[in-house]
């Protein structure tokens, strides 16, 4: 719908800027302050390990998807459909899990705190609100929802295999050493169900909400 074009491009650009800024600041904070990632002894290893976090990957997806939308707010392709749904649902899961489960044990300081607010609060809010108000609409169907579930499943598989190899896990709820495989399996199932449930929720809303129509 043409009437949404003047708002859509700057909004998508703003979301992309906050998402990518949060990732960049987290990388800089990790390079400057080794304390939160002291398990990894070199600066390069600590910075590289930042990208093992679901939060960072989801913010990257949001950044990439919204850069593409800022260039063309009505962009549509099979890859774009999966990318955008993974970005929006992934960042929603990030905000929900962090603020309901992880925030009570987190204690970021300095630049880590700024990155934390951007990645866990600002970007999730802006990305989800932007999708609800602007879309673009018509990009979600059952096949897209099912394909998009590959993202969290691949992350969980990578995290568990890597964790078993190096004895380190990015979040307490996937820490097999602390909780055992049975408890972690249940935790992973909850995250997977939340992700797929939000995907089908997006499917139910997609054609009922106003917004910018994809081509």
UniProtKB/TrEMBL annotation:
InterPro entries referenced in this protein's UniProt entry, alphabetically: Pr6Pr-like
What residue intervals traverse the membrane? 47-71, 83-102, 114-134, 146-164, 184-205
Keywords attached to this entry: Membrane, Transmembrane, Transmembrane helix
Entry protein name: Pr6Pr family membrane protein
